[in-house]
């Protein structure tokens, strides 16, 4: 260790016993222009304070991250602290570096270790609720604290407490293959999930089709009813309407294509009758009917 970065003696009553004395080094860094010499001196200061960063990282072990990863994150926070520290403001480097390093570690937990995305405000509520619940659990007799009691201890509203409680289950998501509590036969969450119901799609299709069916000409509606509701073949429909089977085939194809294109192209128009029923079977054309309907 160079003369510019000396370890403080215990008599200095510093909060970190192994805190080095880097005041002279920071004064020299502030006087140097950007360049290799300033960079090398910053690296020397980082190495001198690395034991403190590693000690702060150990405070967060056993929380789902390896100690090696935490130490790397703490080292990154230390590098940022050395780069940003301004001795002219009068505060010691330790008082500036400790919250910077701890903040970097907490930011890592907030941004990278949650199983689902949770806003920062909700994460803070979760931490306050957890601390209040833990404190109250030691003082209450054989029961967990209520929402109201947690709210009073954490100085939060009941709604904020409930939101924080919900966030407690978002840190580490439960596997769908996990066995449900209270079951001994291996019954898992996967077995509680439903399958796709094709009937719902048919309901949506029918509701989208109803208003367009009402807007069709009479003969097209008549042919569609006889084919899809009456179950008649094209030949039977041709006999019923007095037209050729080929004409029936063309009308069916043209009408179905037009209906499909309309449904895919734009939302359906508002229904004229909310309680619409399937079209009634049309009566046979009378002798006085429009002759064009018999072609």
UniProtKB/TrEMBL annotation:
Q: What is this protein called?
A: SigB/SigF/SigG family RNA polymerase sigma factor
Q: Which NCBIfam families match?
A: SigBFG, sigma70-ECF
Q: Please list the GO biological process terms of this entry.
A: DNA-templated transcription initiation
What sequence ranges are listed for the domain RNA polymerase sigma-70 region? 46-114, 124-185, 213-260
Q: Where is the composition biased (Basic residues)?
A: 1-13
Do you know which SUPFAM superfamilies this protein is assigned to?
A: Sigma2 domain of RNA polymerase sigma factors, Sigma3 and sigma4 domains of RNA polymerase sigma factors
Mind listing the UniProt keywords for this protein, alphabetically?
A: DNA-binding, Sigma factor, Transcription, Transcription regulation
Q: Where is this region: Disordered?
A: 1-22, 264-295
- Report the GO molecular function annotations: DNA binding; sigma factor activity
Spell out the Low complexity composition-biased ranges: 272-295
Matches recorded under InterPro entries: RNA_pol_sigma-70_dom (IPR014284), RNA_pol_sigma-B/F/G (IPR014322), RNA_pol_sigma70_r2 (IPR007627), RNA_pol_sigma70_r3 (IPR007624), RNA_pol_sigma70_r4 (IPR007630), RNA_pol_sigma_r2 (IPR013325), RNA_pol_sigma_r3/r4-like (IPR013324), WH-like_DNA-bd_sf (IPR036388)
- Species assigned in the record: Streptomyces palmae
